[in-house]
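> tool_call: predict_assembly(chains=two)
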Amino acid sequence: MAKALPVSPLAPARFPELPVIDGVRFATVEAGVRYAGRTDVMLAHLAPGSTVAGVFTRSSTRSAPVLDCQAKIGQHDDAGAAILVNSGNANAFTGKRGVEAVTAVTTEVARVLGLPESRVFTSSTGVIGEVLPHDRITAKIGELSQKLDAGGIEAAARAIMTTDTFPKGAQTEVEIDGKTVRIAGIAKGSGMIAPDMATMLVYIFTDAAADREVLQSMVSALNDQTFNCITVDSDTSTSDSLLMAATGTSGVRIDETSVGFMEALRRVMLDLAHQVVRDGEGATKFVEIAVTGASSDADARTHAMAIANSPLVKTAIAGEDANWGRIVMAVGKSGAPADRDTLSIWFGDILVANKGWVNPDYREEDAAAYMKGQELCIAVDLGLGGGKAHVWTCDLTHGYIDINADYRS
Amino acid sequence: MAKALPVSPLAPARFPELPVIDGVRFATVEAGVRYAGRTDVMLAHLAPGSTVAGVFTRSSTRSAPVLDCQAKIGQHDDAGAAILVNSGNANAFTGKRGVEAVTAVTTEVARVLGLPESRVFTSSTGVIGEVLPHDRITAKIGELSQKLDAGGIEAAARAIMTTDTFPKGAQTEVEIDGKTVRIAGIAKGSGMIAPDMATMLVYIFTDAAADREVLQSMVSALNDQTFNCITVDSDTSTSDSLLMAATGTSGVRIDETSVGFMEALRRVMLDLAHQVVRDGEGATKFVEIAVTGASSDADARTHAMAIANSPLVKTAIAGEDANWGRIVMAVGKSGAPADRDTLSIWFGDILVANKGWVNPDYREEDAAAYMKGQELCIAVDLGLGGGKAHVWTCDLTHGYIDINADYRS
């Protein structure tokens, strides 16, 4: 399980320089939850006055930490807050003892940092069905509290990795009322999820000031355009969590009308979402699926996800095969309305199929050359209406089988 | 494309002895539609008085032959009927020229056999988006009509193969009113479908006499318990077709109350459905997913299909990994109601998880030993109600990637 995987060929060249977000400090530690010789717990402390919003997996078998976060996320308190994340054990499907472990950790963090327990959020990622050895974590809270550092975000990104082959970070700045507002985020995830080894966790911080309700509505709306538009293998974690905190230290207050901030946040979330796809298990191609001309945006998304999740489409991409017949198949099976005779398909700029039949000018060698690229776009126009959607995915390769058919150990 | 694949390790030892069904005759020929050196067209002639029923893919991008069959299937005529199937070209996504090809073939079959065109059904399976070279087929109809033979069903099963690694046949007999009624069927299919190379086609024949409506209602009902309960890769063909013909030559008339006949037909259909899974692309394990205790049968089926289609579950099975966490994940993501704390999971007879937590008596080495078998059953009880479902699938292996990531050529 701790076997080092080669870094994804789609990884960014380096971890980005992330700005300090005043009011957030990070610490990491080697707690030995499961892994040896690496950090596996990260603590983020949020200054008094910070607001916190979140979105979580809709799985009906959600983990104990997710249920605890969901119970707390709608509350507010000016006392500050903390986020504690461990890798190596997901604390999922652990019954009553899962709840006990969450309580033990949040109680100790609250005690050491002088916070109400309702302001301590946790995530766990790693093997499922095993009781979280929470003593190993609580024993380190004092040490973590001593090490809190405003510059520790990259180390935090590394401590939350499981089968990720690179740490994931993104940032941006936006000018509002003549002042600079900063946003920085980290994420982990490599299968859309392999519940014994992976999951998608995202933590985003800004020095803007925002009411909890404003922050929540922005994050929920943008999540539907970013993290809910990626798929590696169609599987969904029991632990997926996104937490966003606004410390207010920039002195700039945002509200529902702050379109500049919202666009900046969207860029950060999309960047992190794309990085999760780029670290998709076994991925060798980063693929955008763009669907237009559907009867509605929802129908467009249904078609786009049917294409992105089709094993036959994903293996064709792995084989650099411009197999547009499989696109036709995926559209046909999606369940959303489609008309064979108004359907057009492009690989990049190459029009392959035009209104229900192969484009007479289409030359297979052109598409074959295009498919050798590492960044691909497959576009489909349904010819029915104005509905559109974008989703992002990767190919399905021998690497995916290697990673996921290996025995847990 | 014509590259020989090794025979599936899950294949039956041999093609079964299929009985002659009086009133049905078969012929096959090498027409060179796409493949060289093998038969690729089969013709079945049905005696006057035969009734025909059918079920077809629900894909919204259905092929021209499917649309033609659907238009004809509700009619009846005592003149007899014919089924003509070619492999090598699916005649799908071929626009108006697809319709012209179907018309050319059905017109010629009708002329040579002296049938109304409305009684000639066709299926095509193979590459999509290429115009069917129908002249190569129509040139052979005369020869086919000369070769019609009551004993030709096994040759017919071979002529319709594409990426199948073995021909598929099943049969049974049932005593009704002191007389023997025979049922024999053939099928092809190996991916749930790869539209450029595969698809699922099924042809079943009986010497019972049956009104068209009776036959149709039986086939539709049993299809939901058999062919609609298998999945190789969640992908759905543009061409899937099942045709059933009753010649009436046994002199035994069946109706809605003929439970013995219906059970016999169910066995034949399930046998053929299982053979399609056993020839699943790259399959090394045959897996039954049994879900009980769901809120309804429909919910049970949703859970069972979520498990059967999960790439993470399928790769774990390929790796002989009793990874029950992935079963929890698949149930959680299915969208049907589930309660983590009433969920139990078995691998074979081994109780792995009991009401939301790992069974304290569970020993991983027992499950690991079980997973080495070639025929597996994964059972899930939701603990919510009386809903239940069975589906059948196979594992996801390097072989699937090999077959489907290869370039079409």
